[in-house]
Amino acid sequence: MEPVVARPEPRHRELLRSETRWDRQRHRKAELDVNRAGLGELLHEVQQIENVSGQEIKGLASRIKRRKHADAKDLVKLSYGFQQSGENISEFVRITGAINVLVKEFTGHDSDLQLLAGECLCNLTLGDDVCCEKVATFAGTYLITFLENVNNKRLNHLCIWTIQNIISSGKKSMQVLHSQGVTATLCRLLEETENNELLQDILLAISLILAHDNEFLSNEQILATLLPQLVTKCPQFGTIKLIYLGLTLTNFETLDITIPPLIIKHCVEFFASTFRENNENHLGTLLGIRILSNLVAKSDINSELLLNECQSLQVKLSSMFNFYSENGHDKICKELLWLLGNVYKSTPSQLREQYLLYDNFISELVVPKAVLDTER
Predict the structure, then answer these.
(1) What pLDDT does residue 328 have?
(2) Is residue 332 pLDDT above 50, yes or no?
């Protein structure tokens, strides 16, 4: 059963990028507050800020531009103001030269001011594509350079978050970062990074680059560099998602015959460690099943590899199906039926019978009525 791979419409993709940026920022605000707590009384004072108006932002921007310096209070107030509304961001960007002051503090020797200025730049990228393009132009090279500074975890994360926002804002901003070397840097960091928290952010950043299709990562780079690096990492949602996006762009062609077995093993290992968990990994499972279904549809050899891995890692496809059936995940059940159909059709009868002795998915599936009543 040959798969049809759908790609999101541009308008939907742009909406998704925007929602993702704001959602990421809401989750990170708490961590930034913890980082800022070392500044003592300043944190308490800023917490009293209920609203920062556009006029206040405009006045602050003009003042720091005139002084060519921003102190901690200025930076914290700007950061909170940028989080409160897009209009505040636009007011700041309209003051020519104000962003240069943020970059000056971001690249200075005062570690507290550097962190606070980094927050400001990160929150500026919550604005429209014009704001993101300005941040990329004035601060992009520094963000990329500091991203590689493994000795400063807080700065690492601020840089990667800001880069994610810029990448997701639009093509022009991403073009600026790409010309500064962000794509090559992220791919190199993917290979080198073992820190799981930072690795997840790197995986997300690269997935956002792939949302621009092959504009910044060619099929050749995906096949020769990206996929071989991903399968060496510990299986997690981020690696599964990125493998899926990469294979989608290459129409599930892998060229190198050594890659499909590694991808199949990666997916089955992910299933083995996560499929009984009631969390976001369900989306990873869904994408993993789609990866396997497409690879099996491409080659009968992949079907044999899949069944061998399932037995080796003690993963039963029927147990997975019944688990998701019992928990109401009809969409995953449909995808698994698609996978099982492809496997049954493409596997030699002797191997199929051997696998059925281990996992008789023909007789053991408990198919929910909702799945039977709805076409795939």
Answers:
(1) 86
(2) yes
Residue 206 CA to residue 226 CA, distance in Å, equals 9
**Residue pointed to by tokens 């096949």:** 223
| CA 342 vs CA 8, 192, 352: distances in Å | 25, 36, 12
% of the chain with per-residue pLDDT over 70: 83
Burial 311-341 (b: 16+ CB within 10 A, else e): beeebbbbbbbbbbbeeebbebbbbbbbbbe
Domain locations in the chain? 52-127, 147-217, 220-375
Confidence of residue 1 (pLDDT cuts 50, 70, 90): very low
> How distant is the alpha carbon of residue 247 from its chain centre?
16
- The pLDDT of residue 257 is 87
What tokens does 239 get? 């690696």
Burial class (CB in 10 A: 0-12, 13-18, 19+), 48: exposed
Average pLDDT, the chain: 85
Backbone CA torsion sign across 173, 176, 182, 187: positive
Q: Are residues 368 and 326 in contact, defined by beta-carbon separation less than 8 angstroms?
A: no
CB-CB neighbours of 216 under 10 Å: 18
Tokens matching residue 143:
């963000």
Nearest C-alpha neighbor of 163 from the set 112, 193, 214, 198: 198
How far the first Cα of the chain sits from its last, in Å, is 12
User: pLDDT tens for residues 284-301?
Assistant: 999 999 999 999 999 899
Q: Which amino acid does the sequence have at 305?
A: L
Contact between 75 and 105 (Cβ < 8 Å)? yes
From residue 131, alpha-carbon distances to 24, 30, 225, 241 in Å are 18, 24, 32, 28
Question: Who contacts 118 (Cβ-Cβ below 8 Å, separation ≥6)?
Answer: 106, 155, 158, 159, 162
Q: Are 83 and 25 in contact, with CB atoms under 8 Å apart?
A: yes
